[in-house]
Amino acid sequence: MSASTLERTARTRRSRTRSRTVNARPALVISTLKPHQFDLRPTCASLICPDCRTWVPITGLPTKQPKVVPHDTGRAGKDAAVRCHLGSNRLVTVDVTVKKWQERLEDGGAETASRTATTVLPKAFSPQTDRTLRARAERTATGRVSDWNAVLPRVAAADKKRRVVPAGDAPMDGPEVPQDTLHPQRPAR
């Protein structure tokens, strides 16, 4: 008989075992686990093995001695077959009802849903940005109206220059051409 050269992979976790083997460690008490670390629904009773952190079925839930199914530490069919000797066949003490577990699970979801993120603190401003923001905050509606009224004479003058028709033939269609070239000047500070 020749030894296989293929590397063994983790086996699928059976939902029931017929083994009478029991782990020597003390029984794992369900109430010591967080509600999201176990599932007590009868169709898929399982928990996260505290030793290898994988989801493992609980066999014999309605009987006197429920226990964790023998299992490998990796994903079935993908990872290497490394047996979890510490957590396999360990007895489980179920001291939580399904209703109480479901209430704790829902309360935990409501509690985490109501949490808000911390306030994001703004970056420190540069002196120029600080001056600009302060100036904006100090401006009022009447201040903006007075600024616009101060600009209106220059706007009217530019419109008047645009209306002047140059000497010579005017274009038949299209916009009117201004006579003077406009050279905007920055206001003195």
Structure description:
- The protein is built from three helices and six strands.
- It has 189 residues and is of the alpha+beta class.
- Strand 3 (46-48) and strand 4 (55-59) form a beta hairpin.
- Helix content is 27%, strand content 8%.
**What is the overall number of helices?**
3
Strand residue percentage: 5-15%
The overall pLDDT, averaged over residues, is 80
Pick out the low-confidence regions.
Answer: none
- List how many beta strands DSSP finds: 6
Radius of gyration, whole Å: 40 Å
Main sheet: strands, sense, barrel: 4 strands, antiparallel
- The dominant shape is elongated
Widest beta sheet: strand line-up: 2-3-4-5
What order do the SSEs take from the amino end to the carboxyl end, as H and E? EEEEEEHHH
Distance between the termini: 98 Å
How much helix is in the residues?
25-40%
Structural class: alpha+beta
Question: Which properties best describe this structure?
Answer:
4-stranded antiparallel β-sheet, alpha+beta, 27% helix, two-stranded parallel ribbon, 3 helices, 189 residues, elongated
Q: Helices and strands in order, then pairings?
A:
Elements: E1 28-29, E2 38-39, E3 46-48, E4 55-59, E5 67-68, E6 92-93, H1 98-113, H2 127-138, H3 141-163
Parallel strand pairs: 1-6
Antiparallel strand pairs: 2-3, 3-4, 4-5
